Amino acid sequence: MKKLPIENIGDKFGKLTIKEPYSKTRFLSPQTRAALDLMRPFTLIAPLIVSMSIMVASLVYNHLHFGTPIPQNWHFITAQAGLTIAIVNAASNALNQAADLEADRISKPYRPIPRGMITAETAQSIAYIFYLFALLRAVTINAWFGFFIFLIMLFTVTYSLPPRMKKYLFINQIWIAIPRGFLGIMAAWSVFGHPFTSPIPLIIGAIATTYLIGGMATKDITDAKADKLTGVRTLVNTLGMKKTALITLPFMIFPYLFIPMFINHKLLDPYLWPLTFFAIPSFLIFYLIIKGTESKTLENVQAWAIMYAEYIFFALSFSLLTIFSDILPF
Prior knowledge:
Elements: H1 6-13, H2 30-38, H3 41-66, H4 74-99, H5 101-107, H6 120-141, H7 143-160, H8 171-189, H9 200-215, H10 224-229, H11 235-239, H12 241-257, H13 259-264, H14 279-291, H15 302-323
């Protein structure tokens, strides 16, 4: 099959990165492309892959340990639940951009609202529609999943809107780490199993949350000046890059180093010990935070992208270790 040159792809579908100017294309109008950018599709990859990985791990674990039957349509359920979590994240992204218009005019003027492609009011309406759709879809999967999705919504809304937890130093990192870590994993686990019959989802969720408390500092690097001017205090704009890196490093390495302790106390199964090695790439994130190099194509710095990549591979590894636990030699 003949490959299309990059410029031809751009002519058909529009700009390839969010930082490029909007232009009319054959398939997408500038307004449609702006609406897609409002959802920040790249950031939806992590919650989609992480949540579906946890769901499959839950399916296998609960079948092996509690005899929970595997539904014939488990593929469809997994896809629907994963999409629901991604939609909640898309809603959160849209609402955050509507609330952060003044800051984005300074640090991210290429976003659709500062460019005038979409109004803040429209973005907020889109967010509420997505939230409602996600909640209605979640409760049809099961009550526990709907409950955790509601909690995720509560955290993400109050992060951007009053009491606007985003503006409070360090609390902002905890507030965004809880729904993306603990609540997201609990929601995913509850699709195929009860969230409290085993300590595994609680511990994996706690590990993910602690890691993200540190890792989420990476998203504030390019916004340091804008956040300070708009009354948002972050570690980066309060303490500087080096101190931020030193403070966040323990949050990114110790959760993994505690895994052998959890195994020793029989709170985690022995086959999960290889997850300890995820402490190693956290040192790369530490180095990149200090370096603070902004990506030419992505919205943020390289440390931010690596942080999300590590989280994705952690969830994938947890799922694979659980799936093949019966044949592993440990």
